[in-house]
Amino acid sequence: MQTHILSIVLFTPLVGALLLLFVPSEKKDAVRWIANIFALAGFLVSLPLVPWFWAQRFEPGFKFMEGSTNNWIPSIGAGYVLGIDGISFLLIMLTTLLGWISILSSWTAIENRVKEYYIWFLVLQTGMLGVFMALDFFLFFVFWEAMLVPMYLLIGIWGGPRKLYAAIKFFLYTLFGSVLMLLGILFLYFHHQTVTGVYTFSVTALYETAPKIAFHYAIWLFLAFFLGFAIKVPMFPFHTWLPDAHVEAPTAGSVILAGVLLKMGTYGFVRFSLPFFPSVVMDSRVRWWMIFLSVVGIIYGALVSLMQKDMKKLVAYSSVSHLGFCTLGIFALNPLGLSGSVLQQINHGISTGALFLIVGVLYERRHTREISEYGGISNVMPAYATIAMIMFLSSMGLPLLNGFVGEFTILQGTFMERDLGGHSGLFWTAFAVSGVILAAAYLLWLYQRVFFGNVTNPKNEKLHDLTPRELVTFVPLVILAFWIGLYPKPFFEILEQPVNHLVKTVRPDYPLSGRTVNAAAQPKSLTPTPEVPVAAVEAMPEATKRNR
Amino acid sequence: MFFLDHIWIIPLLPAFGAAMMFFFGRKMQKATVNVVCVGVIVLAFLMSVGTVWQYADYAHDVPGKPFETILYTWLGSDTGNLNYVTQSGAPAEFKAEVGFLLDPLSSIWLLFVTGVGMLIHIYSTGYMAHEGGYYRFFGYLNLFMFSMLVLILGNNYAQLFVGWEGVGLCSYLLIGFYFHRKSATDAANKAFIVNRIGDAGFLLGMFTIAWCFGSFRFTDINHLARNGHFALGDPVITLAAFLLFVGATGKSAQIPLYIWLPDAMEGPTPVSALIHAATMVTAGVYMVARSNAIFVLAPTAMKTVAIIGALTAIFAASIALVQNDIKRVLAYSTVSQLGYMFLALGIGAFAAGVFHVFTHAFFKALLFLGAGSVIHAMSGEQDMRNMGDLRRRIPVTYWTMIIATLAIAGIPPFAGFFSKDEILWQTWTSEGGAYRLLWIIGYVTALMTAFYMFRLMFLAFHGRPRMSHEVEHHIHESPRSMTVPLVILAICAIFAGWLGWPRSLKGSDHFAKFLEPVFAREAVVLQAEGKTGQLAAGVKEEEHTSNTEYLLMFLSVAAAVIGGGMAWKAYYQADKGYAEPIATTVPPLQNLLYNKYFVDEGYDYVFTGRRKVGDVRLGVLGLGDASAWNDVHIIDGTVNGAGWITRFSGTLSKWWDTWIIDELLVNGPATLARMLSYPARLLQWGLVQWYALVMVAGLIGFVAYYAWR
Questions:
Q1: A401 and A461 within one domain
Q2: What is the pTM of this model?
């Protein structure tokens, strides 16, 4: 079972999609039931991963490895190789959960071409899972591209008024990035052949040869990969496809787009850019630019968010800001920054996913996302308002909810770097924390305008509160938000090994372990007062001495 | 040691109450809500008393021995392998625990937070009896108590920060409790966002501390800071102290971040008493006092704290002189008193600052609750211009508020006298008198305090009745649930100060002695550095008991009496249209003070951008506008431009293909050939009739030619 678990998780949604092909499209409810069952099954089959992974969380290397190099298309050296570490494990769990939630949330939202909708959604699900599992570059690229098509169709067919513009923009923008990445992959592939004489797309094999590429080549390769990933994240200034795609996409599409698709970019940085090009990412100029773009993204995204009149656009821009934190943590390149970054990716999936669902609930009732159309919603939908408040707070990083843990870890990781491209960590962190302040500003302002006050718009007077189905979509997210906020230790334990391994690869001189400062100074938890140097005791005034 | 070992139950009790309200509150009777929410606070108070009692036993042999217990690891993996690099270059583990620390400092906070909190909960059952959202109110109050207890019992900075943000959230929720009112939700947002600015500073300060000390735990940090690892005035430590103080200015409403507190009065009055007077706003004082080991190493930061404190004190007091809203006067008074506390901390008199927090909690909570009782009696009226002559109609409120006024004005033997006098005396003597300018500021503030407090009392309770008949008819004393807490607080406002009866007046100053071990270690550091100036309060007192102290004591009592007398003269017989003395003597000053020095407006112009300077919007909203414009036009313009160029070049090449390649170059020669071949083609048409016609025409032509020639 353990040897094939990844394949099972990967293909469960696809099996559902294939099965749906044989269901007549008039039977909408049958289609819905089958799609939901397979989405839930996709989540359930991924659950055994949790105890199995937990048991080996501190062990080095990829787990649940499957397939072998060359077994797929031997002539070019492409293989069906799957395997995960702590980073991809968390992202996979997030994907299966969010996939189920978004399919459940579409029950009443989608009325036309129901069958096609669910088929494409399930295909998308397999594509995303494949990206996180693939350890073969060819396989990775297939999934990476395969994911684009369903998303393009989801936006283009079931989207809002400007759906075609948004869908084409999304498609072309990301395709542009992936083409450059493909060039990068091919360079690595042929370079590997020149060095070792073997043609292979195996990622683990390329880990050996790629870091040795000379800097003046590596920088261009890094940039090619960077464009591919930065567009996906999206980093400032490659972000403008995101608000359009989000605004036009159906609710479930937005949830998956924000929750999982954006993480492809950050995952790519972590999985490929860092270990492939250590000399480049540690280069002072490159680091300056990466950190600079991240910090600008944090502040800029928040500022633009502040001025939006459309709820969904506001949440979309807040994603730019939050993802800025993620890339900041990645390029701080120390254990704290990286683990905080991955954790923040999970948190963003939970919080922003929930925020899109929240917007979707209102949109389904009123078919408008203009903030000015609302006001006083908490009078008519109290349960909804409560859940919205919790998720808003989680998104703005309130302690004891998930967002805080990620942001705190990232910021501390950044702060502890003495030299981040010529500036101190303190310098960058001082700018980055303003994102935390602005997050409170735009989210609370939004909340005030939508939920507080009296109901001024007569159309809002008859809105009904959350249905049980809608409530079910929120409950797991709220529970996760509290779990990560109250007890994030398991997450840090899962991330510890891959993150430390990564830091060791990229900067071998980083002191990962050793006698820690605080261990030296650790007083036994109940010891009264620390010992005082003899000289100081002698110099103490009489009164104080007597007290001792 | 049951209570001490189970100290973590104390914050969990109100958390339980809040959770009950969250899940079941909607369907609960008011009586059930009272039992649950007030019940858990009473239990928490009783447990706190038991805990501190047992702590006294625990620390009997070694005074001030901190009790620490750890529940679980919150942040970090606790394996020792998730590390960061500290200033020294050595790795330190990333770790923050959920742990509890009890020492004299947190004991004091624990007792008055749960004690005053309990009284205010009881009071609220009366005050809020007729309000909607009853369960919601009590749920928020319980959540607040939870956060506050987490804040004061945490054993590390990260946990302190959890409570710190938590109380900020509850403050937000409670200020915006009347969420139908735009002004209330505006004030709530302002409070949260301004606090967040402070919190950002606090976060950075925390990271700086972690960078220096490799830990968030107070015991670790104190250990390192007090053992001479760091030199006096170490720049990094100074930076940390400054950043922490930024956090304190937010939470404790000091210049420049005090602006949220007066607006916070939009919340229900018990909230103003509990959160915005007695407990939450003193969190900044607690944090600075808790970090005393760090601040002592940073003299520059200490000076800044003292100066900001003194300036805030006089600044806010001057605004309070002319306000007409009874709660606003008290709000500015709170800001001003918090300034005193920071003044004390800044000059190194930590114990005196904490003492003032302690006494202030009682008399200021009492003043707010009394004001609430007045507002309750006046059917919601808060403007003192429409009050007057209430003393016989609501006597319990009147007499308890008189006690509180005497206490805040600093009349002996009421509580405020002892704490305020201690602060002023310490200011006079510290650093050999370098802070005497600050003493003058503090002294003038004391004068102002007495004036505005007696002004409030005379306007509300004396003079002629100025309310409408309708309102006058309804005036009634508040129910027992409200007056009993008033009386208990009044008793505390009289006697709480006696705990710190100074030695110069033949007392034993138990309070400072109890706190001494928390701050005493600073003596060691300073001694080791060869600097004796900034010694701890306890030590200093034995050195000077001179006539100066008695003289200063007399002067501050005189200030209180003079201030009160001036208010008596101006307002004792106030009738409708009474004259404000400042308005009659210096009208522009009245205008300036009444409009709070126009600081809010200035901030709106410069920082938030809610007001435009001419046509230009500055501040955050201005930046937001610019960024949004840039996003649509520049960045997306570039993207769309690239798309447009692609499409345009597509159109262009289509045109090129159609007209140049196809028409001109391919079809062109064809047409040309066709045109050139046309005449030749005429000869070879292949139509016989045509040939015949041409022959006939030719024949006619020839005939005609020869005929005519």
A1: yes
A2: 0.91
